[in-house]
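Follow-up to my earlier ticket, as requested here are the two runs.
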Amino acid sequence: MSSEEPTVPIVCTDCETETRVPLSDVADALSRHNDGKHDGEEVAEVDPGLKDRLADLVADDLGLFEEE
């Protein structure tokens, strides 16, 4: 098992940039970028594809896809 912290892709469509940051730094990195580049507007975000995949995994884990 690796002791290295996983990284999360952060994208900003306005700046046309993508970077990866350690999971524990995601909130701070987004705030810093959006405050510094976009006057606080939430433009940069976690990669939408990753957000969708995580939402599916959580829903599956909670049994939300199961039919009654």
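Run two:
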Amino acid sequence: MPMSADDIATLIRQAIPDAQVEITDLAGDGDHYAARVVAPSFAGMSRVAQTRAVYAALGGRMGGELHALQLTTAVS
């Protein structure tokens, strides 16, 4: 069963409370999303570390409930 954009945003915000999260459904199918995650707590982290933090927030759902996620991260 696909994940909703709200579910994705909630998981990210629970793990990264200071994050501003924008989710876009790229294909209208609930399986292909783009996410922009901006958080002050990303300061000092490499882009790879930021990406890992977001994927960790999703708790292993990538490739299962969540088929594809185009991810952009930034420090606010």
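The only thing I checked on run two: The radius of gyration is 12 Å. Let me know what else you need.
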